[in-house]
């Protein structure tokens, strides 16, 4: 993956996690249930303290829950434990962060600790949750086919198959079905 700065969100995993949490925040569940869903999705990072993304998982999640006004005591307790133990700074140092950046990261963690232990002075805007389930896009028995190259599907975000073939070595040689 990669880290490119000292903030909580200065890394590929943190950016991906942010979007995952954003999607989960739309569910009409309480903080404990939302955390359980997130831990199930990101179990490697959440449960393995030796994983390089472990501290990032807990700190980013705590920060976003705090900003969204979602109360989850287990999350707050875990994030505070990580900050107070120096676990995040030790992981960043083992990943090659230099002394100057470690001091900046420590300041970021100190700010997060203060926000986690101080009630907000402003009213937190109520988060928008889904009022009803999203409609199904497919019916039982529907079948979709798509072009493949060596068993891999093409990326529709690139554009048409022709555009993708111009930018990569992707050449259609079969079909997939779902």
So what's the overall shape?
Answer: globular
Taking Cα atoms only, what radius of gyration do you get, to the nearest Å? 21 Å
SSE order, one letter for each helix or strand: HHHHHHHEEHE
Q: Which regions have little confidence, pLDDT < 50, spanning 5+ residues?
A: none
Can you describe this structure?
The chain is mainly α and 178 residues long. Helix content is 51%, strand content 6%. The protein contains 8 helices and 3 strands; from the N terminus they run αααααααββαβ. The chain has a 3-stranded antiparallel beta sheet, with no helix packed on it. A hairpin with a 2-residue loop joins strand 1 and strand 2. Helix 1 (12-24) crosses helix 4 (54-68), helix 4 crosses helix 5 and helix 5 (73-85) packs antiparallel against helix 7 (99-117). The mean pLDDT is 89.
List strands and helices in order, with pairings:
Layout: H1 12-24, H2 31-41, H3 43-47, H4 54-68, H5 73-85, H6 87-94, H7 99-117, E1 145-149, E2 152-153, H8 161-167, E3 174-177
In short, what is this structure?
With 178 residues, this protein is mainly α. Helix content is 51%, strand content 6%.
Record keyword descriptors for this entry:
8 helices; 178 residues; single chain; mainly alpha; 3-stranded antiparallel sheet
């Amino acid at each position: 993956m990669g880290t490119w700065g000292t903030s909580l969100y200065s890394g590929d995993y943190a950016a991906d996690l942010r979007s995952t949490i954003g999607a989960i925040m739309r569910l009409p569940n309480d903080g404990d249930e939302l955390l359980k869903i997130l831990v199930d999705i990101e179990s490697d990072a959440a449960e393995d303290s030796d994983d390089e993304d472990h501290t990032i998982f807990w700190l980013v999640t705590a920060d976003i829950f705090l900003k969204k006004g979602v109360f989850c005591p287990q999350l707050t307790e875990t994030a505070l434990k990580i900050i107070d133990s120096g676990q995040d700074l030790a992981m960043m140092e083992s990943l090659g962060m230099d002394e100057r950046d470690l001091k900046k990261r420590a300041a970021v963690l100190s700010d997060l600790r203060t926000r986690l232990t101080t009630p907000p002075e402003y009213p937190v805007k109520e988060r928008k949750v889904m009022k009803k389930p999203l409609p199904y896009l497919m019916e039982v028995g529907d079948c979709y086919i798509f072009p493949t190259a060596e068993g891999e599907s093409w990326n529709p975000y690139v554009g048409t198959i022709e555009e993708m073939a111009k930018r990569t070595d992707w050449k259609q040689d079969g079909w997939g079905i779902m």
